[in-house]
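Async update (no meeting this week)

Hi team, since we skipped the sync, here's where things stand on the single-chain job. The sequence we agreed to prioritize is pasted below, unchanged from the tracker. I ran it this morning and attached the output directly underneath so nobody has to dig for it. Comments welcome in thread, and please keep replies under the output.
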Amino acid sequence: MRKIFILFVVSVSFQISFSQKTQFLAKPKLIVGIVIDQMRYDFLYRYYDNYSEKGFKRLLKEGFHCKNNHYHYATTYTGPGHAAIYTGSIPAINGIVGNEWYELSGKLTYVVEDSLVQGIGTSSLAGKMSPRNMLTTTITDQLRLATQFRSKVIGIAIKDRGAILPAGHTANAAYWYESQTGNWISSSYYMQDLPEWVQKFNQSGRAKQLMQTWQTLQVQDNYKNAEEDNQLYERPLEGKKNTFFPHPINSFSLLASSPWGNTLTKEFAIEAIRNEKLGKGTETDFLCISFSSTDIAGHSFGPFSVENQDMYVRLDQEIADILAFLDKEFGKDNYLLFLTADHGVADIAGFSRKNKIPAGYASSTYHLQILQEAIEKKFGEGKWILYTENQQLYLNHSLLEQKKVSVSEIYEVVRKSLLHHPEVYSVVNLWDNEIEQALPDYYASMVKNMYHPKRCGEIMILLKPAWYYGSGKGGTTHGTFYNYDTHVPLLWFGWKIPKGETTKRTHIADIATTLAMMLNLLEPNGCVGNPIEDLLKNLK
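Output:
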């Protein structure tokens, strides 16, 4: 009898130990990262009453919400945002300092351009893209490395940079939208031919089927948190004259600016899961989805427009469809989903002024003109400023050397010439690392996190809150270190995710670190994020 008891105890102990080990090493079958281009944090709540129970509300009610989530660098654009989310890094390290920048050689570089590859599924330059300009690994790379490349990783977005940067250097595939043909394309960096399922999707003509007149999904009276349609400071969609409903969507390019660009993205993403059998293998797979249409339309109409509210009410349905598909395909406990954004957006200056809020447009052409004149007056004729990009001045070092003029001397002229202008907040000497002298600590750290010495200019011009460079012909933009551009959603849902929220400040780099902790992976090699403790300590 004693022997039987001992065997029973040993057996139970082994089962408990095996169960604990299994739970400790458990991983989701599929991770789905969703990035919504230009989704400011307040959109979650400002449009809340118009959302269904199955999309954003479900994520908020059943998932974990990091309510105080921010970008931690100055140039909040699409390329840097997608790179920061997945590298857990900053532009100063991962090298993605803007959507475009000038190299030391003087070459203007688009964030994902690559002359060494060929387009797949296209003969146009739109296919000559890859992640080579990104200097660090991503969490998706780390997943592939940890599983000896058995994990599958795929990136999908209307915008090439929204698909390519998240998927990383070692991805199985990245697909983006060609606005001339309505097709999904890729590059020879990933493959030599489009998979059969992608070809069939393109041949189905789905993009053309989705072209229709954009009317509001709900009656406009329901959109109580948007101002009246057709404001003078709105900007028409590409090729259009009117800024009011209805909006005829009659080209592949316009489709990308409409809610149906998001529909096309969702449908293609679901087909990728099905046909690539994502989540069906022995290792965790990763699908990176970025919804680009919110940004394209958002630039035209602004965050208080009827169009913006309708875009998000419709996107709520796309999110609900994705969740329903994942539930059916895997079960909620077998997939991990996070949702965030690549940047926020400023209110349209015309809207702010109408409501007595200080705001306005600045002219980069005018700034460049007065600076060139002031520098020439001080140091003589010559093209002192070669380029401007990302609010930065790239100086002519050959001319500086020839005339024995230092960057600091040019900086003093720029600072004195611009500081008395009402739209300018500060001017920063990046080259001589005089950032702290020009800015409070909070903002100085964000500029330092942005500055890459081989890809940034020497001097940066910072505008006041709610001011931005523009023509004054309407529309809005992003790209600053102010909260309206940095505060974005961060929602976690599914596998082991507890119900709850935290108001502790989190940064966009924390996403990759937190995923690494969840999956027992090494963080990306340029990672600067911290694990989100309030989330991790409550994992189920």
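Quick observations from my side:
The chain has 22 helices and 22 strands.
The chain has a mean pLDDT of 95.
Reply here if anything looks off.
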